[in-house]
Amino acid sequence: MGKIIKERSEKDLAGKVLRGDLSEWKGLEKVKNYKKIFALAKNLLHPHREKQERLMSRIKELRELSSIASEAGMHSMYQSLNKEANELFMEYLVLCFLDGMSFLLPHAVILWLLSIKFSTLALPVSLPWVGNQIGIIVLYPLCAVAFYAGRGYYRKRCPQIRMSST
Questions:
Q1: Within a domain: 59
Q2: Which of 38, 58, 115, 157 yields a CA-CA distance of 20 to 30 A from 89?
Q3: Which of 107, 90, 111, 98 shows the shortest CA–CA distance to 46?
Q4: What is the pTM of this model?
Q5: Which residues pair with 120 in a beta bridge?
Q6: Residue 126 and residue 136 in one domain
Q7: Is Membrane one of the keywords UniProt gives this record (predicted)?
């Protein structure tokens, strides 16, 4: 009986997909397109990530060299390496700020568009201090924070289900 099921699952497309053979699966193109879209969104939201990683590795290298120079007693070399590391760190912080702004900008645009259409939302119950209406200016940031917190919690709990590392 088990042999029949195994032979049938080898011929069945669902069985092949479950075993990881995706060559005949029609949805493979869609998954590849989604991965391209996620990569594009990742590059739009964090355009300076590669440069940040390069700068951070260079800063670590300079810190190691400056500690070696300090141990060897070469104070002028230590000072120049520290100065260069600090300059690179400031550039790194500027790139972090720009990435943060490019990440927050879509949220600001969405909030602006939602506030034009829906200034307040009516709630089915009356809440203390709020009443039965809540402004979109308050609701959208709460929902965005809850989404990112839930996504982080979900990724920690179920890392094997992630499609992409965004």
A1: yes
A2: 38
A3: 98
A4: 0.59
A5: 135
A6: yes
A7: yes
Cβ neighbours around 81 below 10 Å, total: 21
Among 20, 39, 33, smallest CA distance to 165 is for 39
Residue 95: what pLDDT? 92
- Helix (H) / strand (E) containing 135: strand 131-135
Both structure tokens of 112: 């602006």
Residues composing the chain: 166
Beta bridge partners, 121, equal 134
Mean pLDDT in runs of 10 for the chain (166 residues)? Answer: 52 59 60 71 78 93 91 90 94 92 86 84 78 81 88 77 50
Q: Answer whether 43's CB lies under 8 Å from 35's CB.
A: no
Q: Which residues pair with 134 in a beta bridge?
A: 121
Same domain for 4 and 36, yes or no, is yes
Question: Which residue, chain included where needed, has tokens 């992630």?
Answer: 162
**Structural domain for 73, as ranges:** 47-99
Residue 42 has which token pair?
Answer: 């990742």
Q: How many domains does the chain have?
A: 3
Q: Would residue 108 count as lying in a domain?
A: no
3-state secondary structure of 132: strand
Beta bridge partners of 127: 131
Quote the CA–CA distance of 152 and 162 in Å, as a whole number: 11
Instruction: Classify residue 23 by its DSSP letter.
Output: S
